[in-house]
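Recall the central idea of this unit: under ordinary conditions, the amino acid sequence of a chain determines the structure it adopts. In this exercise we apply that idea directly, starting from the sequence alone.
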Amino acid sequence: MTNASAREIDTSRPHSARMYDYYLGGKDHFEVDRQAAEAVSKIFTGVFVAGRENRGFMHRATRVLAREHGIRQWLDIGTGIPTEPNLHQVAQSVVPEARVVYADNDPLVLKYAERLMRSTQQGRTAYVQADVNDPDTLLNSPEVAEILDFGQPVALSLNALLHFVTDEQDPYGIVDRLLSVLPSGSALAISHVTADFDPEPWAKVTAIYEEGGTPVQVRTRDEVARFFTGLDLLDPGIAVAYRWRPDPLTEEWSEDQAPTDAKVSLWTGVAIKP
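Accordingly, the structure predicted from this sequence is:
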């Protein structure tokens, strides 16, 4: 990590990636992140369940795309702080030759990027520090050009990212631009926070993130479905994270840890580009 990158890490305000690390039980966060995350957990008590189920969805979606749809390349934007198994580890457990480019705009993620480079010998991984709000710079980065072949299908993974892109930032236009360079047979996987099941806590949760400088916009099922316009949704369509192709052998959770729609509050979907 360069000194310039180190100086960019702002530990005076909470950051969404570091808060998510706390939700997942990680150790790569600061006191300010812990305080903000605990404040969220007091309002939205399901946040730890939601974090767990979001990871579970990512794992299952990655395996399905690799096994059933022949995907061998991934562009994962909004990677966050590495938490094993990372996407490339899941993909390469199915197809060792899988190639993955990770992208995030948090300098702290850059610090731990070497964790994302531990590829199989057959596959490749790379990390690019980039912002989803500037899709052209991201797509034209040397790392993307080196690792991904846009002549072959690519899975665009946007997990727990788009609720940090407000309507003023044109999230639908950003997704369309990213998909526009991907060939037929490519895929889009999204998880997105929603207030559909329990609207009450979300104004306060949003305020905590916005006080830290991170805008949040929760969206309805129909608004999330709009990201998949023109694509072929895989069964079961738009579903709450834990309901998207759950593993046959699911862990027995205690009552407070068992997922419900309200606790998870994440719409998910996976689709193929015709």
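The two ends are 41 Å apart (CA to CA).
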